[in-house]
């Protein structure tokens, strides 16, 4: 082998060594400081504890007005993205998890009822029909971003007396669609098709797979750490 051949072999080895050091620095040395849940929802906080043992919560201050021209799936991802981007600007070098949930009946988006009468109108419209609960996810490790919309179909069946009794509890007034499946509102639901936790507000199965794909170990016993 001549001097030229030896030079190129040595040069290639240096490049490979430098590349390996760069990958090590990115994935091993540059540890992300923490996990941030960009949500004020106590339900999402409790659900995330099933996946990650240590995280902090931030309540995003964003415009939650629906964006014109978007379909429901795009809309819910857009709202989750606003929350995630808001948190990412304030928490550098951190994992960010954001979510937003909408209740969709046909082509109508159902938000939180304004008053008991509005709750009665919403629940009456949902009664005896299938509707969809959509949760948009936005996950970032500080460099990459993953988004997804999880959809669960829900069917409700109840009589007028049951509906009025539920409204009297006051529970519907702070719930999108006028009910909370994880509380007494679950008594009005006769079946679902899809992820139950998505209806509560955080699709755990989808979130777990997104985090795993991005390199995070999950489940509380593992603690917060990134995969090698």
Explained architecture:
By secondary structure, this protein is α/β, with parallel strands linked by helices. It has two domains: 1-30; 33-222, Maf protein, CATH 3.90.950. Helices cover 39% and strands 21% of the residues. The chain has seven helices and seven strands, in the order αβαβαββαββαβαα. The protein has helices at 3-29, 42-48, 72-90, 116-126, 160-168, 196-200, 204-214, and strands spanning 35-38, 56-58, 95-105, 108-110, 130-140, 145-156, 189-193. Strands 1, 2, 3, 4, 5, 6 and 7 form a seven-stranded mixed β-sheet that branches. The longest helix is centred in the N-terminal third of the chain and has 27 residues, at 3-29. The radius of gyration is 23 Å and the shape is elongated. Mean pLDDT is 84; it is low at 11-30 and 222-228.
CATH architecture type of the largest domain: Alpha-Beta Complex
Shape: elongated
Rg is 23 Å
CATH class of the largest domain: Alpha Beta
**Main structural class:** alpha/beta
Helix content: 25-40%
Order of helices and strands: HEHEHEEHEEHEHH
């Amino acid at each position: 082998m001549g001097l030229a051949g030896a030079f190129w072999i040595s040069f290639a080895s240096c490049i490979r060594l430098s590349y390996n050091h760069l990958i090590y620095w990115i994935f091993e040395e540059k540890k992300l400081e923490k996990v941030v849940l960009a949500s004020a929802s106590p339900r999402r906080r409790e659900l995330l504890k099933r996946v990650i043992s240590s995280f902090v919560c931030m309540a995003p201050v964003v415009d939650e007005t629906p964006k014109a021209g978007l379909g429901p799936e795009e809309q819910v991802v857009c709202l989750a993205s606003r929350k995630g981007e808001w948190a990412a600007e304030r928490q550098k070098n951190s994992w960010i998890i954001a979510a937003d949930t909408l209740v969709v009946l046909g082509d109508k988006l159902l938000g939180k009822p304004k008053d008991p009468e509005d709750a009665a109108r919403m629940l009456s419209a949902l009664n005896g029909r299938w509707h969809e609960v959509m949760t948009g996810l936005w996950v970032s490790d500080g460099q990459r971003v993953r988004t997804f919309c999880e959809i669960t179909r829900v069917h409700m069946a109840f009589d007028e007396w049951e509906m009025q009794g539920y409204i009297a509890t006051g529970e519907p007034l702070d719930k999108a669609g006028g009910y909370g499946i994880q509380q007494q509102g679950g008594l009005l639901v006769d079946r679902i098709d899809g992820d139950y936790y998505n209806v509560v507000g955080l699709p755990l199965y989808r979130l777990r797979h997104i985090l795993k794909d991005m390199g995070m170990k999950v489940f509380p016993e593992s603690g917060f750490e990134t995969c090698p």
